[in-house]
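Lab manual, section 2.4: Encoding a predicted structure.

Procedure: take the sequence of the chain (124 residues), apply the prediction step described in section 2.3, and record the output as structure tokens. A sample record is shown.
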Amino acid sequence: QVQLVESGGGSVQAGGSLRLSCAASGDTRNTNRMAWFRQAPGKGREGVAAIYIPYETEYYTDSVKGRFTISQDNAKNTLYLQMNSLKPEDTAMYYCAAAMYAAFWRLPNNYQYWGQGTQVTVSS
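Recorded output:
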């Protein structure tokens, strides 16, 4: 079992920055991929960014490329999402997820473990 706890959400004005953190604990040895998803009210869960752990390959959805950066600190078992130039359309609950197997990174069903989420609100 893997436990994930997100932090770092909050309210900012458009153009501002936030850094989300996801602390992982438990049996993380076989974690193959970690990702950030978000879900706005009335919408489905959207893949924002992911990292393939063995090679540190990064993936981003088009709308955040150049603004968001995913990174990991293996010593701290922590995943980060640096979010710059935030826009009102980035407003959502952000979730950290972990997968044991390599698969299409955007599909929520490919992730076995989820955090409880952290809210990000961007005002115009």
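Check your result against the sample. The chain has a mean pLDDT of 95.
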